[in-house]
Hermes trasposase DNA-binding domain-containing protein (Dissostichus mawsoni), 343 residues
Amino acid sequence: MKHPLPTASTSSNASTSEQRTGVSTGQRQTSIIDFSKRPVTDKRRQQITDLLINFVVKDVRPLSALSGEGFRDIMKFFEPGYKIPSHATLWSNIMLQYNTVKARISNEMKDKSVSLTTDLWTSCTMDPYITITAHYITDTWELKSRVLRTTIMPERHTAVNIAQRLKETIEEWDLVVFCTIHDKQHEPGNGALRAVSPPPWMCRTHIQLAIKAGLHLPEIAKTTDAARRVVSHFRHSSVAVCALKKRQEQLGVKVHKLQNDCATRWNSTFTMLERLYEQRLPVQAVLADETVTKVGIRRSLAMRECQWELVAQLIPVLRPLAKATTIMGGENQSGCPSSTPSY
């Protein structure tokens, strides 16, 4: 059966449809597949590359993340016409972005009085690093902190070696240094620091040095060691963790995990003791349960009543010191008004 000839009515309807859609009936609309296969312009290619660099830098990702098969599948789906640049090209773009940001920060610090702080730390792979941070106030009275350098430091962390790293940073950035901050006033070689930025200031907010000395007192040290063993047991035993959660629910205690402390952060010891004392009843119940804790382990982890009392006494003493450490360690405000009384 032949298709009927178009009438005036059908021709009129087709014409109206063309006017409404703006597409001739003889033309095929672009499908989503055709749209995704459109050619990538140089401008868009650079925009995508900049976004990839931003992803690597902001999220601290390795360049190898961009060469993974799964990531390439995503890029192929969203932008089939884009080819991810080589490792060398990406690294070149990162260095270009680094130099741009460095020039902007250098210009921002120009003719400003800059204070420097250093941090010596060790990575999880036991590589020693030094980080040098600049602190200054902008023309709009905004306190800024910029990390100028994070480099490996295999040599001994003495004042002489630290001073050399500071000198290199000051020369590289052409800084007008107001002061440097250090925490060991009587360390041999501190004269080298004086040569970098006179006068040297001892860190007034290093209260952890005094607090650590207190935590090393024999009775306190024994108590914190005992607490650390209990926490370590619950952090490494899945059976104990499940039993603790069940006891917490039965006793109506907040369902919180025990916290380990870190040797380089004294306030983590306060957090560990505070959390352990909060969970004292469910912890003791789990340790007393023979179906969960073996007799030998229970005896080695048992804390005496006098030790629990000492923990209770330490918590209110350490709490304001922990708060002071948090305030003085802030990056966006000065700690001087909080540490120096106003007369």
